């Protein structure tokens, strides 16, 4: 029986999200905001999307939960976790796309106007 060999590469999300870069003349139209650098499992959530090599979205898990919290530390007195673990290979195997080259995009999200993580 042939043994499968998996290769995992870290790529930037450019082209996968569907968002375009902001041109300089439009920057003044956008309010600034502080970005938290901690993850609160009870407030934040992760969305996982699968793409083919042509950057076509195949499927999305709106609330991804297969992660592990590694650290409960805080940064600059901000509540939350500074480290979580994601097993990309296991996510690929559970996707149903075995034998197919795909890209996985993990979006770390927050609903600032809601107290739940349900989309």
Question: Can you walk me through this structure?
Answer:
The protein has a 3-stranded antiparallel β-sheet, with no helix packed on it. It has a two-stranded antiparallel ribbon with strand order 3-4. The radius of gyration is 17 Å and the shape is globular. The protein is built from 1 helix and 5 strands, in the order ββββαβ. It has a domain at about 40-110. It has about 120 residues and is mostly beta strands.
The secondary-structure class comes to mainly beta
- Total count of strands: 5
Q: Mean pLDDT, rounded to whole units?
A: 80
Percentage of residues assigned to helices: under 10%
Strands ordered across the widest β-sheet: 2-1-5
Number of H/I helices: 1
What's the short story on this structure?
The protein has 119 residues and is mostly beta strands. It is built from one helix and five strands, in the order E-E-E-E-H-E.
Q: Strands, helices and their partners?
A:
Blueprint: E1 44-52, E2 57-64, E3 67-71, E4 83-86, H1 88-94, E5 102-110
Antiparallel strand pairs: 1-2, 1-5, 3-4
Keyword list:
single chain, 119 residues, mainly beta, three-stranded antiparallel β-sheet, two-stranded antiparallel sheet, 1 helix, 5 strands, globular
């Amino acid at each position: 029986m042939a043994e499968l060999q998996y290769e995992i590469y870290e790529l930037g999300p450019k082209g996968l999200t569907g968002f375009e870069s902001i041109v300089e003349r439009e920057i003044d139209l956008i309010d600034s905001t502080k970005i938290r650098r901690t993850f609160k499992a009870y407030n934040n959530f992760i969305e996982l999307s699968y793409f083919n090599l042509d950057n076509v979205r195949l499927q999305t898990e709106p609330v991804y939960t297969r992660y592990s919290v590694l650290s409960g530390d805080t940064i600059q007195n901000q509540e939350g976790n500074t480290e979580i673990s994601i097993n990309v290979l296991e996510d690929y195997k559970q996707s149903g796309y075995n034998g197919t080259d795909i890209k996985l995009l993990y979006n770390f999200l927050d609903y600032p106007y809601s107290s739940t993580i349900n989309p």
